[in-house]
Amino acid sequence: MERPTTVKILKFYPEKCNGCLDCESACSMIHFKTKNGGEQSAIHIFKKGSSYQMHVCDQRGLCLDMCPVRALARKKNGIVWLDKNTCIGCQACVGFCPIGAMRKSDVRIEPFKCISCGACVRACPEGALELVERKIDDIKEVVYHKQGV
Amino acid sequence: MAKGQISIEDYDTGNTRHKWDTNKLKSVHKIITKYDYKKGEVQRGYANRTLYVNLSTGAINEKPVTEDMKKKFTGGRGFGLKLLWDSIKPTTRWNSEENELIITTGPLCGTTQYPGSGKSLCLTISPSSNIICDSNVGGFFGPYLKFSGFDAIELQGKAKEDVVVVIDGEKGRVTVETASLEETNSHLLNEQLTHMYASEGTDKSRQKVSVISSGTGAEHSWWGCLNFSFYDIRRKVPRMKQAGRGGLGTVLRDKKIKAIVVKVEKIDGVSNHPADPLTLAQIGTKIHKEIRDLDRYQCNMRTVGTGHLVEIMDAYDLLPTENYRFGSFPKASKIYSPEFYKLFTKIIPDGCWHGCTLACSKTVDGFTVKTGPYKRQKVTVDGPEYETIACGANMGLWDPLWILEFNFYCDTYGIDTISTGTAIAFYMEMYEYDILNKERCDGLELCFGNAEAVLEFLHRMARGDKGEFVSVAAKGIRRVKDWLIKKGWGDPKLIEECGMESKGLEYSEYVTKESLAMQGGYGLTLKGPQHDEAWLIFMDMVNNAIPTFADKAEALHYFPMWRTWFGLNGLCKLPWNDIEPANNAETDEPSKVPEHVQNYVDYQNAVTGWNVDKEEIILQSERCYNWQRAMNVWMGRGQRKDDWIPYRSMGPVTEMEYLSRKERYDKQLIEKLGITEKEVEKMDMKEKIKILYDFRRDQYQKLADAVYYRRGWTPNGVPTPQKMKQLGMDDPKMLKILQQKIDEDEKTGLNVWGGNYNKREKPPSKDHKYWEK
Question: How far does CA B560 lie from the centroid of its chain?
């Protein structure tokens, strides 16, 4: 199989964000068919000081090697994908994600994450989000036991 | 990315590939007996029934798990005790028709959120000790057994020819099938059966099969272990974990069972149907994070597994070297964990059950076998763990590659590395004293450090060599002691005191000479000298936190009960204290790891929907612990005489050992025994050894007194009917047995304390029959 070399990740322009959280609602629609946002959204926008920050998976894929059943895999388009039918809900990826981007909602045992689908980008009324292409080699990480992560 | 790492997509073990026609192997299987069952769902951790298979009669049936059974025995090892009690007699021995091999799970077993939740508990009457031996093991079998519908499987009777027992959780069918063409040794057999019974030819499908097997070594020795497989989808090999202690594999092969196979239909994160999955995910994620952040600064389990202990034990003079004569050795650094780290395969998640992020199951892939039937083949070696490496030290093997070779053959031959290593170390010491020699060892030069001879011994044993030495040696230290004494080849006392066994079972790998509490941790146990009941060396010897007999007795009450609890639930103990919260040292009782105790309380409540607290979980253990001791009494054991330990575990047997720690021992003669420095200087070595011997033996008896009292037993170590009733274990038959035994002991004068108490010292109680008050 030919390996992907690039992946699209989210880029955030805080100066444009108005804090409406339409992005989170859009994300919830994708993952849970609700508009709840919050713990049911893979993207989080929160206020820090006077401006907004974004918290989301950067597709580095450190979790790939954590999964005991290989429910996590890099898709053809480069994104790290969690197959919830294979997932056995152990939360190892949730616990080990160094940036806390693997999410877990109360409504089901399997975690979920950003899949760079662009729903949030489309939902943002201010154009504060953008999908940008990155080389996988520049961002990927592999579990290295000595480092514990 | 670290230098030298390989991405997992490209990973290849480099092992020798085998091409078997599994259809052909299967085509000659004859189905001896078949049982269709109704598939059911696990409810709050319980499948609510157990499976009974009789290999002699072909009977297969289900037994219900009642609420009373859960209340009294909780699950796991507790259920095993209950099933054995209903099936065996006090005269049952390991090879009796009615002896059973039981594999149990436990209500928390199979949870994926909390690390270390995939343990099976195996019970049988052991060939080594003639009493119940329980052994815990990882791998996928336990969880799959439960998710296929059963909390336990009971195997009774013996088949006429080699069979496999297959539990097909997909079809809801149990079969016993002949299996004449398959290999017997585990590393090959597990692969054959995994491929044979997987529903499809995919790794995902193979991951849903788990096999229990043993090997040819188990057929010809009393050290047989059970290998539990777990298919590794990255390496594409079924790896294995061992239920090592007590000869369970010997019982498996005596029943002519080649393997037990289970296939699960599906698993997910809530296959246990826990009462409160949210709490499970919360406490699980919390400890995953703890491991992520702290393991590298604490035990480094994710990197080197339990092997990290080698350098610590060596530093504290606790690494058993040359049959426990010494606790450290100049060459020991050759087998420190960094040496094994160089050999271990990296970057692969190494949990023996899903979700275990402590991941201590290390492997060496593509290891080139040096000797024996698989010479020059490349194989995956599971391990070595600390105990196996320490066996190397005990036998004077200071080369990691020979330790791997020993590890590989013990595993595939289905024998316990601990019993085998400890026993060979004893034979080597006897060889050094010329009690054994080349002629008496069937031509084997079993001197310390001779790795070739060790492997040759294993190969001969696995082939069923009929040589006198090989035949006796394969039964373990206790029988070799008897044999040597009968032959009149050496001083019986020396032989008795050097051979590291108690209750017939070989010691595991820690030097306990300077820690009285740990001597109790090995001796005052249910199944024999195994550190799974208590590990108190640092608390006792290094930190001096339990100075009095009463303190030690409290530790020898609490920790065995606490550790027993893991076995009742199907859990591994390592995530309890091999990872600790950052602020653990500041808590009231750091040795208990209070935050993790609370995790486990929350964990059991979250799965079962109960409302227990930390006191109740100790009670759960106390019920089963006392029941097992009572069953030992029923079988004519479980008394003070059975808690005897060899002096090698208590102090210096030989002059060389005294000399190696002369300062410490001389100081003890002065400080503890009130002998003046001048007198000590004048004494000869033999005299000093004798005085120390009498003192330390007496200390151990006093410890036993304190522990028996704390546990609610008589001075002869018999659980009292009063204690049993108080725990709710009120089976009238058992109460009667115990009362009769106590009355007998009264007549024979055994209801008295074992220690010699001077005027300043007090025994635990001055009331005769204190338990009646």
Answer: 14
Residues B412-452 pLDDT 10s = 999 999 999 999 999 999 999 999 999 999 999 999 999 99
Domain boundary among B206, B238, B263: B263
Any domain includes B272: no
CA distance B735 to A79: 65
Rounded CA separation B345/B365 (Å): 6
Whether the pTM exceeds 0.95: the reply is yes
User: 3-state DSSP helix/strand/coil percent for chain A, to nearest 5?
Assistant: 25, 20, 55
Same domain, B683 and B765: yes
Whether the CB of A64 is below 8 Å from some CB of chain B: the reply is: yes
Q: Do A91 and B355 touch (CB under 8 A)?
A: yes
pLDDT given for residue B345 in this prediction: 85
Task: Check whether residue B410 and residue B362 sit in a common domain.
Answer: yes
> Domain range spanning residue B51?
22-263
Out of B2, B233, B270, closest to residue A144 by CB: B2
Contact A95 B112 (CB under 8 A): no
Nearest to B120 by CA among B93, B147, B94: B147
- pLDDT tens digits, B541-578: 988 999 999 999 999 999 999 999 999 999 999 999 99
Is A102 in contact with A63 (CB distance < 8 Å)?
yes
Tell me whether strands B163-168 and B257-263 are parallel, antiparallel or unpaired.
Answer: parallel
Give the strand pairing for B49-54 and B152-156: parallel
Site of tokens 């899949």: A115
Which domains are seen in chain A, by residue range? 6-147 (3.30.70.20)
Backbone angles phi, psi at B409, to 5 degrees: -70, -40
Q: At what angle do helices B549-569 and B516-523 cross, to 10 degrees?
A: 40
Q: What is the DSSP string of B252-282?
A: HHHTTEEEEEEE-S---TTTT--S-HHHHHH
ipTM: 0.95
User: Are B36 and B117 in the same domain?
Assistant: yes
CB B391 within 8 A of CB B425: yes
User: 10 Å Cβ neighbour count for B117?
Assistant: 31
| Residue after which a domain boundary falls, among B471, B488, B506 | B506
Which residues of B, range 328-367, sit inside 8 Å of A by Cβ? 346-349, 351, 354-355, 357, 359
Q: Does A99 touch chain B (CB under 8 A)?
A: no
Contacts by residues B609-612 (CB-CB < 8 Å, ≥ 24 positions apart): B609/B44, B609/B275, B609/B276
| In-domain check, residue B294 | no
Residue A113 CA: distances (Å) to CA of A27, B84, B126, B338, B757: 10, 48, 50, 37, 68
Are B284 and A90 an interchain contact pair (Cβ–Cβ within 8 Å)?
A: yes
Q: Which two tokens stand for residue B556?
A: 């020898």
Contact B296 A68 (CB under 8 A): no
Torsion sign (Cα): B590, B595, B596, B602: positive
Q: Taking chain B (773 residues) in consecutive chunks of 10 residues, what is each chunk's mean pLDDT? A: 51 91 96 96 98 98 98 98 98 98 98 98 98 98 98 98 98 98 98 98 96 98 98 93 97 98 97 98 97 93 94 97 97 96 82 95 96 98 96 98 98 98 98 98 98 98 98 98 98 98 98 96 97 93 93 98 98 97 96 98 98 98 98 97 98 97 95 94 96 97 98 98 97 98 98 95 94 92
Q: What is the pLDDT of residue A148?
A: 39
Q: Categorise residue B218: left if φ over 0, alpha if ψ from -120 to 50, beta otherwise.
A: alpha
Query: Tens digit of pLDDT for each residue in B99-152?
Result: 999 999 999 999 999 999 999 999 999 999 999 999 999 999 999 999 999 999
Give the SS3 label for residue B212.
strand
Give the CATH number, domain containing residue B521: 1.10.599.10
Residue B9: its pLDDT value, please?
67
Specify the length of chain A in residues. Answer: 149
